Amino acid sequence: MKTTTSLLALTLGGLLALGGTGCHRQSAASAVPPKTLEEGVAQLTATLAGASAEVQSNLYNGVFYNIRYGNLPKAALALQQVATDPGLTAAQKKLVSDVGDLVKQAASQPKAP
User: Fold this and answer.
1) Pseudo-torsion of CA 97, 102, 105, 106, nearest 10°?
2) Of 29, 47, 91, 110, which one has the fewest beta carbons inside 10 Å?
3) What is the pLDDT of residues 29-70, one digit of tens each?
4) What is the DSSP string of 38-50?
5) Measuring CA to CA, which residue among 82, 89, 80, 87 is closest to residue 26?
6) Distance (Å, rounded) from C-alpha 1 to C-alpha 11?
7) Do the Cβ atoms of 96 and 82 come closer than 8 Å?
C-alpha cells in the first residue's frame, strides 16, 4: 500500500512539474485577421495580455469601454495610442491596425433605430 501511494505521489508530482512545459508557438487562429469587431476585441485581449500597464489601461479604459458604449471615434483614438507603444511587436501592431479598421468601418455604418 505504501509503495502504491509513493508511486502515485511521484507520478502526480511529475505531471505537475512537466505540465506547464511544451511548445509555445503562436496558434494559427491568432494569425487570422479578425472579421468582426467582437473577434478583434477577443484577439486584442489575448494578444496584449502581457503588455505594459499603459497599454492595458488604454485598451480597457479607452478602447473596450468606448466600443461597449458605442463611442467609436474615441475607441479609434485609444487604439492609435495603443499602436504607438514602442513595446509592441510587429504582429501586435498589425492586429491593433486591423481592429482599428474594423472600428472605423463600424463607425461609418448608420446606426440602427
Assistant:
1) -140
2) 110
3) 456 889 999 999 999 999 999 999 999 999 999 999 999 999
4) HHHHHHHHHHTTT
5) 89
6) 15
7) yes
Mean pLDDT of the chain: 82
Question: What are the boundaries of each domain within the chain?
Answer: 35-108
What cell was used for 24?
509555445
Q: Are 95 and 47 in contact (CB under 8 A)?
A: yes
Is the separation of the CB atoms in 8 and 66 below 8 Å?
no
Distance (Å, rounded) from C-alpha 95 to C-alpha 71?
20
Torsion over CA: 30, 32, 33, 35 (sign): negative
How far apart are the C-alpha atoms of 41 and 70, rounded to whole Å? 14
Q: Which amino acid is at 81?
A: Q
Q: Measuring CA to CA, which residue among 8, 5, 47 is closest to residue 30?
A: 47
